[in-house]
Amino acid sequence: MLKARLLYGGILLSVFVGVETYDMTQDSRIGTSILIAMFSLVALAEFYDMAHRGGRPVAPAFGLVAAVAYFALDVAGFASPSLGVAIVTALMVALPLASRDTTTGERLERLLLTVFGLAYVTLPTSFFLRLVGDPGPPDGLRLFFWIVLVVKASDTGAYFVGKGMGRTPLSSLSPKKTWEGAVGGVLTSVALGTGLGIWILDLEGHQLPTYAAIAAVAAVVGQAGDLLESAIKRGFGVKDSGRFLPGVGGILDSIDSLIPVAPIFVLLYAWLT
Hints:
This protein is mainly alpha-helical. Helices cover 75% and strands 0% of the residues. The longest helix has 29 residues, at 104-132.
């Protein structure tokens, strides 16, 4: 199981690093933008699939079309809170009309779960699209590269520290997670974030404490995002978000810690810097 997870994670990391390296050397944003949109759409599809497997009414086609439209308009520079409201309003009108053979309660649940998927996955990850388009300094593409590695460092640190030293359960939502692992994950993020800040972002000495603090907050928020997805999976009665690689997980399992970090990082970065 661990070998399979490491192989799966290594493949995803290789794809990510390859795309980021290409965009950085070519002074491009297109590869990263496509990668963000693709991962977000697959994660949204997995969320809807989990709901379906859990016997809950959901409208994946409507949700995915809405997500594609939002990302397209976001890339074109037209995304805004009012656009999000307009998309949700359109869903509120279209879904009941397309579900006339169901009860009122089922229609409402279908609408709420479909909209929740957009609010949970699509809207937060769209902040990353805006981040990579920021010319900086530091360059938004490099900031995206940095924050993703910082958050995944927390995941990795929490796993290995928890496995080796974990004694105190963190939450009933994920029995294998421990407080020791959580602390180890935060410390790993701070250490890696500081080193990568010098290497990737060309930070100066007086900037390091700010970025170390951002890394710590991102690690905590990322771990909370992991627990949130665990709660969602438990509510649907499923083990993994994806079902094509049993026991390994899916894309949503891989980016659950990044989803809540996206808007918080963008806002925190703007405030602190």
